[in-house]
Amino acid sequence: MSRVFAYCRVSSTEQTTDNQIHEIAAAGFNLSPQRIIAETVSGSVAAQEREGFGKLLNKLEAGDVLVVTKLDRLGRNAMDVRSTVEMLAGMGVKVHCLALGGVDLTSPAGKMTMAVISAVAEFERDLLIERTQAGLSRAKASGKALGRPQSLSANQVAEVKENLSRGLSVAAIARDFKTSRQTVMRIRDSAMQE
Is 47 among the domain residues? Predict the structure, then answer.
């Protein structure tokens, strides 16, 4: 007989996993208290990097069932969720998500659902990249300077080059101009390429 585990996660200490546990039990899953893994960790942390999820992985065996209330409990984005579900499926663990009608994400229908979710996430990511590139192009066309502002003026850069040619050390020049050694080294490297 397969064992049922619940993975419940909240992002802050002001929140509680009680509602998730109640929702899983109300869906008809028989939960033993020792098989409920609850943790407070940001959703931005990948599942495999979470302490509680790591403990869960050590308990799971082939034939077990893992239940979550929502997909975002399992990962930070669709790609992370997909890799987590694939890893669990590779272990022989079935993954049920209540928000998707309790579907087993490792079943053929569940795999199709995950593929659609992943495709939509990739599409959204591509649109974001496209919008970002368009915005940068517009800014550049309107004459806006992109990137971080220069830490040294053109005159200071010329002085740095002169000091370098006279043999002063990078550290001494950086101290004199109250800038980082990396800035002086970038100026030195660009001067060598001229």
Answer: yes
| Whether residue 87 sits in one domain with residue 39 | yes
Q: Does residue 107 form part of some domain?
A: yes
Q: Which one, of 82, 16, 93, lies nearest residue 46 by Cα?
A: 82
SS3 10: strand
Q: Are 95 and 85 in contact (CB under 8 A)?
A: yes
Active site residues: 11
More confident residue, 111 or 1: 111
C-alpha distances (whole Å) from 7 to each of 11, 74, 134, 157, 189 are 13, 8, 41, 57, 52
Tell me the pTM.
Answer: 0.63
- In this structure, which amino acid lies at residue 104? D
Indicate if 32 and 106 belong to the same structural domain.
Answer: yes
Q: Exposure of 46 by Cβ count < 10 A (0-12 exposed, 13-18 middle, 19+ buried)?
A: middle
Q: Residue 181: which domain range?
A: 154-193
Compute CA 7 distance to the chain's CA centroid, rounded to the nearest angstrom: 19
pLDDT tens digits for range 18-41: 999 999 999 999 889 999 999 999
